Amino acid sequence: MDAVQDQEDGRVFSIVPHGTLPPATYTVSWRGMSEDGHVVRETFDFTVAAW
After folding, report:
1. Would you call 24 helix, strand, or coil by DSSP?
2. What pTM does this model have?
3. DSSP one-letter string for 25-50
4. Which of 26, 30, 19, 23 is nearest to 46 (CA)?
5. To 10 degrees, the CA torsion angle through 8, 17, 32, 7?
6. How many whole angstroms separate alpha carbon 44 and alpha carbon 40?
7. What tens digit of pLDDT does each residue of 6-40 get?
8. d(Cα 45, Cα 32) in Å, to the nearest integer?
9. In DSSP terms, which residues pair with 44 in a beta bridge?
10. pLDDT tens digits, 38-49
11. What is the CA radius of gyration of the chain?
């Protein structure tokens, strides 16, 4: 899946997963590079709950 950069705030990116995510906890890992070439890496978790 490809990330899409926000047109109004270039610091914001989004993705749309293919299909439905089943209930679980997921980890997102991302990496970005600043204008000066400094690499930033981060991870965060999110949970999809069953209805």
Report:
1. strand
2. 0.70
3. EEEEEEEEE-TT--EEEEEEEEEEPP
4. 26
5. -10
6. 14
7. 999 988 999 998 899 999 999 999 998 888 999 99
8. 18
9. 28
10. 999 999 999 999
11. 14
Contact present, 3 and 28 (Cβ < 8 Å):
no
Per-residue HEC secondary structure of 2-20 comes to CCEECCCCCCCEECCCCCC
The first and second tokens of residue 37, run together, are 């070439």
* Token output for 3: 């990330």
* Cβ density class 10-24: b for 16+ within 10 Å, e for less: eeeeeeeeeeeeeee
| Residue 1, pLDDT above cutoff 80 | no
Burial class (CB in 10 A: 0-12, 13-18, 19+), 5: exposed
Q: Phi first, then psi: give them for residue 19, nearest 5 degrees.
A: 80, -170
